[in-house]
Amino acid sequence: MDYLRSYKNIYDQNIILLYKGELTFDLVTSMIATLEERLEELEENRKVKKKFYNVATECVQNLYYHLDEVTTDEMKISSYDSQSALILIAARKRFYSLQTGNYVPTDKVEEIKARLDEINSVNPDELRDLYKKALNEQEFSEKGTGGLGFIDIARKTGGQKLRYKFQEVTDKISYFTLQVRLPREI
Q1: Nearest Cα to 69, choosing from 94, 93, 103, 95?
Q2: DSSP secondary-structure letter at 40?
Q3: What is the distance between the alpha carbons of residues 15 and 13, in angstroms, rounded to a whole number?
Q4: d(CA 97, CA 160)
Q5: Given strand 163-168, what is the order of strands in its sheet?
Q6: Under DSSP, is residue 46 helix (H, G, I), strand (E, B) or coil?
Q7: Nearest residue to 160 (alpha-carbon basis) of 116, 100, 110
Q8: φ and ψ at 157, to 5 degrees?
Q9: CB 63 within 8 A of CB 83
Q10: pLDDT per residue over 32-86, tens digit each?
Q11: Among candidate residues 36, 182, 186, 157, the one with its CA nearest the CA of residue 96
């Protein structure tokens, strides 16, 4: 492996955070604190800082809260760790890019797709209404989440489309990748 080329690629892509592995509460807390510090160095616009921090926090917490939906037993036929997450955050010239990846039960794919497609189909004003509706109608899960995360991310990114992809790993497990872009100028 050419480590110098890997380093240059990471440096040229201006990667703020790259993580692959199991997430714990302490690690999530540490990541968020590190992101906040890096953001102070990179970004002058207070509004962008606040939105980026909120979006990054929501993305990382979303992974943490939903990693246990795929059990280790379901992953036995695969060599991958079901509790493993991927986080890649980069500062581009015009936007911040946040990418996450995690395993999800295949039977939840259509539900997640429908939710994301609904969010992507509305304008920023309609997002606000969708958020209020979800807040009023949703019951919170045992994890304390009410399904508001994706809507909140879309709202904070100014209505940017949430890019996603599902790849089937087995008939019971799929890999979910989410990419969010936050403009650096508001």
Answers
A1: 103
A2: H
A3: 5
A4: 12
A5: 15-22, 84-91, 95-105, 173-183, 163-168
A6: helix
A7: 116
A8: -95, 10
A9: no
A10: 999 889 888 888 899 999 999 999 999 988 888 877 667 655 555 555 666 788 9
A11: 182
Residues in Cβ contact with 95 at an 8 Å cutoff, skipping those fewer than 6 apart: 181, 182, 183, 184
CA 85 to chain centre: 10
SS3 17: strand
67: which DSSP letter?
G
pLDDT, residue 116, reads: 94
CATH superfamily of 3-183: Histidine kinase-like ATPase, C-terminal domain (3.30.565.10)
Q: What is the pTM of this model?
A: 0.83
What parts of the chain have a pLDDT lower than 70? 68-69, 71-82, 138-147, 186
- At residue 9, the pLDDT reads 74
**Which DSSP category does 178 fall into?**
E
Are residues 172 and 104 in contact, defined by beta-carbon separation less than 8 angstroms?
no
CA contacts within 13 A on the Cβ side of 50 = 6
Specify whether the backbone of 62 is left (phi greater than 0), alpha (psi in -120 to 50) or beta. alpha
And the tokens for 154? 């879309």
Tell me which amino acid residue 173 is: I
Domain layout of the chain by residue ranges: 3-183
